[in-house]
Amino acid sequence: MGATWLKPDFGRRRDKAACREMIRGGSRSFFFASLLLPPPLRDPAYAIYAFCRLSDDTVDDCEVTGLAPVESLYERLDLAYAGRPLDTPADRAFAETVDLYGIPRALPAALLEGMAWDCQDKRYETLEDLHDYAARVAGTVGAMMSLLLGARDPVVVARACDLGVAMQLTNICRDVGEDARRGRIYLPRAWMRGVGLDPECWLADPKPGPALASIVKRLLAEADRLYDRAATGIAGLPSGCRPAIHAARLFYREIGYDVLRAGGDSVTRRAVVPGDRKAALVASALAAAARRTEVDPSPPLVCNRFLVDAARNAPEPKLEPGPLGRAMRRIDNRVGWTVELFLELEQRERAAQMAAAARG
Fold first, then answer.
1. In this structure, is residue 5 part of a structural domain?
2. DSSP string of 311-343?
3. How far lies 337's CA from each of 22, 35, 215, 282, 320, in Å?
4. Per-residue pLDDT tens over the stretch 187-232
5. Do 45 and 148 contact (CB within 8 A), yes or no?
6. Counting Cβ atoms within 10 Å, is residue 305 exposed (0-12), middle (13-18) or buried (19+)?
């Protein structure tokens, strides 16, 4: 007897709106890229990212509070998977998403493990150590998104995890100064000592310089390697989903390029990708999505193997694929609107900044 499919009628309207606004305010690059997703998939994607954002915000003060916030997140995760989520929009939407799309608990649980490492002030000596961290806090998101988009081939999931790790390495390079002001270093400490920087001494007085820039450039080169490999995996996604994921890849990669244009200085400045630049990158994303590409069959990074295995053993989704597939093909008419929205949002932000400066 065949599966009993459910219609893709996702979530409560208020919950969806709350998750959407959480992402719009907290992860603009992902929000912009998400506008290229087929409409039925946007709100479930927001639900996943909203839970990740909520988790990240919960552990922000764990240097003071210890592991208690992470323990509370594990409890919330258990409730979500038991079908009894906490009475918040993010929890309700996340519980529904993981149930409908067959996302195994091992994936968000690994995300929380990475956040526990933050609370424990875990140190990363080598690139492989940093890969382990990035796999948990970002490779997990790649695996969950792959399942959400209906791609369960282990090679495609491995490339999605590559993309997550690459994005996290970019985030680390962008946030060197911000992390240092919070008493944290995510750059490989062995690399720092290799260029004459004592990690603890530098942390006491974080400043940019040629030595630090060489490490940032080296880490961004590793991110670039993974972005290139991940790009091939996007070809394994449903065609209507490819432009959005290529856009996310290009947006995050551009953050790294902005760091490089500043000489590798992410201590005194924070790299950004303005809305008009994002709009220009949409054309590149569409071109990349249209190209025929063979998925790179390389095995997953060692750090990502357990994520690929978890996705391979994921339960079947409960959603009916037919209507979703048809919606995925209706993308061309959205592209011009999306570009216009990027530009409008950028103009609004600039106007708000000017008004705030005038009031100050």
1. no
2. HHTPPPP-B-HHHHHHHHT--HHHHHHHHHHHH
3. 22, 9, 40, 12, 28
4. 999 999 999 999 999 999 999 999 999 999 999 999 999 999 999 9
5. yes
6. middle
Q: Provide the number of structural domains found in the chain.
A: 1
DSSP-assigned beta bridge partners for residue 319: 6
4 SS3 class: coil
Which CATH number goes with the domain that contains 317? 1.10.600.10
Q: Which two tokens stand for residue 246?
A: 């290529």
Ranges in the chain, pLDDT < 50: 1-8, 322-323, 325-333, 336-337
In a domain, 50, yes or no: yes
Residue 271 lies in a domain: yes
Distance CA 192, CA 199 (A): 7
17 is written with which tokens? 């709106």
pLDDT at 328: 45
SS3 6: strand
Six-digit token pair at 134? 């990035």
How far apart CA 149 and CA 141 sit, in angstroms, is 12
Is the residue at 360 inside a domain? no
Q: According to the 3-state scheme, what is the secondary structure of 162-228? A: HHHHHHHHHHHHHCHHHHHHCCCCCCCHHHHHHCCCCHHHHHHCCCCCHHHHHHHHHHHHHHHHHHH
Q: In the prediction, which pLDDT does 332 show?
A: 43
Two tokens, residue 207: 């400043």
Look up the domain containing 62 and give its range.
13-351
CA-CA-CA-CA dihedral for 101, 107, 109, 113, to nearest 10? -150
